[in-house]
Amino acid sequence: MRKRGRRTRSVLAVVAAAVLGVAGCDAVGGDSAAPSESPKPSVKPTPLWDRSPGSVAAVGDSITRGFDACDVLSDCPEASWATGASPEVDSLAVRLLGRTGAARRSWNYAVTGARMADLPGQMAQAVRRKPQLVTVMVGANDACRSTPSAMTPVSAFRADFEDSLRSLRKSLPKAQVFVASVPNLKRLWSQGRNSPMGKQVWKLGICPSMLGDADALDSAATLRRGTVQKRVEDYNKVLGEVCAEDKRCRYDGGAVYDYRFGTAQLSRWDYFHPSVNGQARLAEIAYRTVTAKKP
Predict the structure, then answer these.
(1) Rounded Cα distance, 88 and 92, in Å
(2) What confidence tens digit (pLDDT) does each residue in 275-290 have?
(3) Residue 269 to residue 88: CA distance in whole angstroms
(4) Which of 265, 247, 248, 246 is nearest to 256 (CA)?
(5) What pTM did the predictor assign?
């Protein structure tokens, strides 16, 4: 009886081993369903828009150069909304990169007096630095001409802007672009015309298409200013439309144009360019747009 019991237990052990072995084969390659495995961590796709770019290059006109923000008739790049180091402005570059980072990894290629036709050349300079973000603010000088008829045609404005973005994409396909709207020139007239100093300075030839004969309210003057204002609105429409065609471009949605600035935001020397305070407000708008979760 003891021998039979040991033999029975031995047979059961062999059968059990066989069953477990078959189950193991089925788990690996048989017809039965495989046991669930621990889910592998999903790889998140790289976002089209990086809200914290590592370098900034600025292109545009006198506003981005900080003209008349610090001294009369001179650029003041340290007060630039885009790349300036002034703590009073807290520029976009400083907000994104920190003060030390901005000093090392931000560049200003804007030129006082520049128009949209100058943007392709500025963009060609900027791409040499391989910036992760390029800021664009240009268009005021296209509207500020001797007469409304001398303003840049909308078609030419569009063509030059498209050319600028194309040249950027050829060299830096993943670079991001922030585009600021053209400021509201008619509001500038309505704010500055109350300053005797401002009107005297405007007579020197600052934006005559809008600011000339500042006190004139006749139908001809009203029509002239309305024509300039409409052109600015058309420029902004172009900026928004062209930017929307580029998946790595963000337009401010007209935030600069819509900003209700007062004389505190205007240069005390020309009542046209932004003051240090005005530059700070531009930096706020840019930073809000660049860091928004969605455009």
Answers:
(1) 12
(2) 999 999 999 999 999 9
(3) 19
(4) 265
(5) 0.84
Q: Where are the alpha helices (DSSP H) in 176-218?
A: 185-192, 196-202, 208-211
Using the structure block, give the residue that is written with the tokens 């932004």.
274
SS3 108: strand
Distance CA 72, CA 84 (A): 18
> Tell me: the pLDDT tens digits for 214-262?
999 999 999 999 999 999 999 999 999 999 999 999 999 999 999 999 9
Q: Are 235 and 154 in contact (CB under 8 A)?
A: yes
Token match 């005297």: residue? 200
d(CA 238, CA 294): 21
Retrieve residue 90's tokens: 């807290």
What lies within 8 Å, CB to CB, of 56 at 6+ separation is 82, 83, 92, 93, 96, 97, 102, 105, 106, 107, 131, 132, 133, 134, 135
| Other Cβ atoms within 10 Å of 33 Cβ, number | 8
DSSP state of 263: G
